[in-house]
C-alpha cells in the first residue's frame, strides 16, 4: 500500500522499522488520514515477524504539532467528536500494545496529539530543542487521545495536572528531569541514537522482549497480586523457548548467544 501521510523504511537487517510522520507543510498535524494510515501500518508491523523494534519520528524539524485543527473545527456535535476521539484512542492503544518496543524520536515540537503519540510509545528520546505540551485547554477542550491518562502514569499526578491545566510547553531538559523523556541528544545525532537503541533491542531474544513488554503493560492495569501472577506466567512460558536454552548455554560457555526468535 502507498502511504501519503507517513513514510516508513526498514534497516538493512529488516529488524527495525522507522516511521516518519509526513505532513511537513502542516507541522505533521495528526489528521484522520494519518490516523488511518498509522492504524494500517501498525497492523502490518504486528504481523511481520521480521520486525523486532519500531521508531516513530517526525523528521528533522518537528515531531507533530497536534491534531489537525481544520478537521477538529468541523466536529459539529458530541457524536462527531466521539467518532474522532475513539479513532485516535484506538490507534494510540494499538501502538502502545504492539508486542515490540516502540521508540519516539522527538525533534522540535510534540504538542497535543503529537505529545500523546509520544506517550503511547515505550521510550521517548528527545533532541535538545524538543518541546512538549498538551495545550488543548487553551481552546476549551482536553486531550482526547490518552493524554490525561498516560501522562500522570508516567510523571505523576501533580506534574501532569500542571501541564494539563496550563497548557504551557516544557523543554527537553525539564521533560528529562520529570521522567517524560528517557534521554536527550543533539538534534544531529538523535536518529542515529534512536537506531542504535532500536538495534540493541532487536538483538535481544524476541520472545523475551515480547514477554517483558506485555508483563509491564498488562500488569500496570492490574492490582499487584494479579500482576505478579501474570509476570510469573510470562516467566514460566519462556522456559519452553529455544532462545532461553541458547542464552543459558552461551552464558555457561562464555560466548555470544545466537538467538533465533524461537
Automatic annotation (TrEMBL):
Coiled coil residues, start to end: none
KW Lyase (keyword) present = yes
What GO molecular function terms would the record report? hydro-lyase activity
**Keywords (A to Z) from UniProt:** Lyase
Q: Which InterPro entries match?
A: ClpP/crotonase-like_dom_sf (IPR029045), Enoyl-CoA_hyd/isom_CS (IPR018376), Enoyl-CoA_hydra/iso (IPR001753), Enoyl-CoA_hydra_C (IPR014748)
What is an annotated GO biological process for this record, any one? fatty acid beta-oxidation
Q: Does the keyword Kinase apply?
A: no
Q: Which family does it belong to?
A: Belongs to the enoyl-CoA hydratase/isomerase family.
Q: What's the name of the protein?
A: Enoyl-CoA hydratase
What lineage does UniProt assign to this protein's organism?
Bacteria, Pseudomonadati, Thermodesulfobacteriota, Desulfobacteria, Desulfobacterales
